[in-house]
Amino acid sequence: MITITIIFIAVLIVTGITLYLSHRYKQQRAEALGLPPEPPAPEIPEECCGQHEVCERDSLLAAVSRDIEYYDDEELDQWRGTPAHLYTDQQCAQFRDILYTMQSHEVAGWVRSLQLRGIELPNDIKDEVLLIVGERRSQS
User: Fold this and answer.
1) Is 104 left (phi over 0), alpha (psi -120 to 50) or beta?
2) Alpha helices, H only, the chain
3) CA gyration radius for the chain?
């Protein structure tokens, strides 16, 4: 087993050295031929441009955007700090009503807004939200 590990590490080291030398050779050759240096990586715009695998507006992560946007759901603020497993059936129904009255492209933003406002989604509707967002992503 130790022999295999040593061989694996040696192959990794040789590969790394080869890649480094190859890159360095290409840089020196480009300089000798008077070619311009490689351009820097392009900046990614803050708006969704359709060129990325996961678009910001489809992200469920609150860290993506710090802007709180209300989706005609101000009444949900009363449950700020309520754990997801403590919602009653009536409260879950209220979340579900709001969920199903919005457009599918608004759901990810709504979830981000809830996170930023400190409101946990009830456990009963988390799967429904993930299904809607997943379907939207697969259509894009």
Assistant:
1) alpha
2) 2-33, 89-101, 107-116, 123-139
3) 25
Q: Which residues, other chains included, contact 75 with Cβ-Cβ below 8 Å and sequence gap of 6+?
A: 94
Contact between 94 and 126 (Cβ < 8 Å):
no
pLDDT tens digits for 49-82?
A: 544 444 544 454 544 556 678 888 889 889 888 8
Q: Which one, of 127, 99, 104, lies nearest residue 114 by Cα?
A: 99
In this prediction the pTM is 0.54
Task: For residues 79 and 88, give the distance between their C-alpha atoms in angstroms, rounded to a whole number.
Answer: 11
Query: What span, in angstroms and rounded, lies between the C-alpha atoms of 119 and 125?
Result: 13
